[in-house]
Amino acid sequence: MVAYRVVLTGALVAYLAAVVLTGYVVLSPAFDVPFGVTGWLLFAGPGIWAVVGRRKIVSEDLLADLLRPWPLALAFVGLLLVASHFALAWHLPTQCNGISLNCLKGYEWTDANGVFSHTPTDGVSSQISRATYIEEVGVHLRSAAAFGIFSLALAWAAAIAFRKVGRS
Predict the structure, then answer these.
(1) Is position 133 within any domain?
(2) 22 closest CA partner among 13, 35, 33, 10
(3) Under a CB-based contact definition with an 8 Å cutoff, are residues 137 and 131 in contact?
(4) Residue 167 domain-assigned?
(5) How many other β-carbons are positioned within 10 Å of the β-carbon of residue 62?
(6) pTM of the predicted model, to two decimals?
(7) What is the per-residue pLDDT across 68-117, written as a single tens digit (0 to 9) for each?
(8) For the chain, what is the domain count?
(9) Would 92 disulfide with which of 11, 96, 97, 123, CB 3.0-4.6 Å?
(10) CA-based angle 14:20:23, to the nearest 5?
């Protein structure tokens, strides 16, 4: 399952790139679903592979195998930490109080031919600048991405647990 862990590391690199992109580019708030769900689909992969390949959970040397091959494990953990920081604590507006999770929950944003607006939870829509739109939608998307990023760590462990005996 080393190849699958390489795929997970690649997905983490893609998440990091997407999270950084949210701070600079006008994106649709609808990207929150793919940002949140992609990691969970990758988490489901080892379980499906185990059922199809009739594999069982292997408990021998599970903790040691989490770190093999160690360069890949080190790269994954490093990317996980950096991506988590960017997803949770980077480029936050003042109303977020230091963390992005659910900071702008209930907001809705629109982009009608370059005219940006948001509707907070009170229901009053107002026009906002392009920079504010990028900042607010970016926080929303990064919050969803954090959900997917953390699922990749679970997928890493699942890829180790569901393997053939004697292989990593």
Answers:
(1) yes
(2) 35
(3) no
(4) no
(5) 13
(6) 0.80
(7) 788 988 999 999 999 999 888 887 777 777 666 667 767 788 888 788 98
(8) 1
(9) 96
(10) 145
